[in-house]
Every structure is written in C-alpha cells, then in structure tokens.
Amino acid sequence: MLSFGEVAERLRRSTVQVFSKGARGGGSGVIWKNDGLILTNAHVARHTGAQVQLWDGRRLDARVTSVDSRRDLAALRIHGDGLDLAAATPGDSSALRPGELVIAVGSPLGFAGAVSTGVVHSTGPLPGMGRQNWVRADVQLAPGNSGGPLADARGHVIGINTAIVNGLGVAVPGNAAVEFVRRGARPSLGVTLRPVQLGLEILKVESGGSAAAASLREGDILLGSFDDLSDALDSGRDVVRLRFFRGGIERVREVFVPLAARAEAA
User: Which CATH number fits the domain that encloses residue 232?
Assistant: First the structure.
C-alpha cells in the first residue's frame, strides 16, 4: 500500500498549471489520459488557446477542444513526442461519504503542485447552483486551485476543484467529469446570466451560440429560475421555448431557441 506521501506525489505529477492566452492569472488541470487529454474548469480555459506547464516545468501549447460552461468543465489537448504523461486514476464520486479523507492539488497563488488535505463535508446540490450535485470538502483552496484534482486517500480523482463557497471547497464530482469525457458538453444557450427580481438577466451573449441565433440580447430578462432553465436544456428537446422581457415589463415576449447538438466527446 502506498504511503500518503507517495499518493500525493503521484497526484502532483498528474496535475498541471493552465495559462489561458489573453487572460490574467491561471488555474490548474488534471492529466486525464496519457494521450494528452487534460481536464480543467471552463472558467480557467476562457480562450481556445492555452498553455500547460507539467510537473517537471515543461511548458506546452494546448488547444481547448470542448467546454461545458454549465458544469464548469473544459477539455484541453497537448501534443508532443516523449511527453511521458502520468494520467490520473478516476474514482467513483457516488461512493463518497462525509468524513472521508480527501487531497487537493493545484497551483494556489502560482505555487505549483501545492497539496492540501481535509475531509468530505457533504455532497449534493447547492442553493443557487442548479439541481446538479457538488462535492464539498474542508480543504484549503485559493485562486489557482481551480481545475485541479480532488482525490480520495488512494489518490483516485473524485472531483475537479471549482470554487470556495462559505469557506468550503466545492468540486465538480468525478463521475460528472467522466460523463463529460464520454459524451461531451451538454446543450447551452451561450449566455452569461445573473438572477434578478423577475428572472434571469442576460449579461453577455456569445457569438455563434444558440441565444445569438435566436436574436436574444444583452439586457433581456428570461422568466424563470436557473433550475427551470437547466431542466429545459437537459430535456432532450431540439428546441426550447423561452419567455422574456425586453426594455420593460409591459409585454412578455416569446422565442423558440434551437439547441446545438451535444458537442463532440473529449
């Protein structure tokens, strides 16, 4: 059986630093397959181009191949001869129980390969973050940890660290990451939203996205909640009906938004 130090060292070799071109700061990533597939957060991989620094200091260009902004996951690809990548081992996040030891590895504040330990606090949905499950743990995280692995005591990755909420580390469950790799990104409107009194205000519309194709604009207010919208996007329908306000609340408008097919698997 491996010692704790050996487990942590293996995780460090499977963890990379991610630098998104054109953006300040950076994050972390997990070598998911030894063919060059790396997983990180969507908010870390903000542009199609990125650079990845391996545990031994080598820095390589990477290409963003798939993004699921709703689950905050992204896939990167690196190429090269003789990379000798140490891929992580996925674990079963559905088997996690409160109190289990977990290990987080990342690059908090730029310190590559930093290790933090803690225990699982809870698993399940979080208020205001949709119906999807999250893993919460009392590991010490900081900017730069995003996209790095959360692993169990055996070193199996059971989460992708994403945020700090009320002092606890929050991670995308490892099983969701496995599903993302297998099936690709889920349908998305291609918008940035914020909750307001009447619904969800569109702050940004991505060029080429479903919302842009349906002529939705910044400032439009979609009626309903994040959970309602998430359910509609995951319904399996090719077209979703949305009701919204534009320029005032005197008249409710309606639009039918065609959803793009699920993105190619990573």
Answer: 2.30.42.10
Q: Is 186 helix (H, G, I), strand (E, B) or coil?
A: coil
Per-residue pLDDT of the chain (266 residues; tens, 9 = 90+): 678 889 999 999 999 999 987 666 689 999 999 999 999 999 999 877 899 999 999 999 999 999 998 899 999 999 877 788 999 999 999 999 999 999 999 999 888 899 999 999 999 998 877 788 999 999 999 999 999 999 999 999 999 999 999 999 999 999 999 999 999 888 889 898 999 988 999 999 988 889 999 999 999 999 998 888 988 888 888 899 999 999 888 899 999 999 865 544 44
Print the domain residue range for 226. 191-258
Tell me, yes or no, if 146 is annotated catalytic.
Answer: yes
Phi and psi at residue 183, to the nearest 5°:
-115, -15
Secondary structure (DSSP) of 126-180: -TTS-SS-EEEE-----TT-TT-EEEETTSEEEEEEEEEETTEEEEEEHHHHHHH
Q: Is 47 a catalytic residue?
A: no
Q: Which CATH number covers residue 36?
A: 2.40.10.10
Residue 265 lies in a domain: no
Of 20, 66, 116, 146, which is the active-site residue?
146
For residue 64, tell me if it sits in a domain.
Answer: yes
Query: Given 14, 20, 28, 43, which residue is catalytic?
Result: 43
Which of 159, 183, 207 is at the close of a domain?
183
Q: Do 73 and 102 share a domain, yes or no?
A: no
Q: Note if 156 is an active site residue.
A: no
Which residue out of 20, 28, 72, 220 is catalytically annotated? Answer: 72
Instruction: Count CB atoms within 10 A of the CB of residue 164.
Output: 16
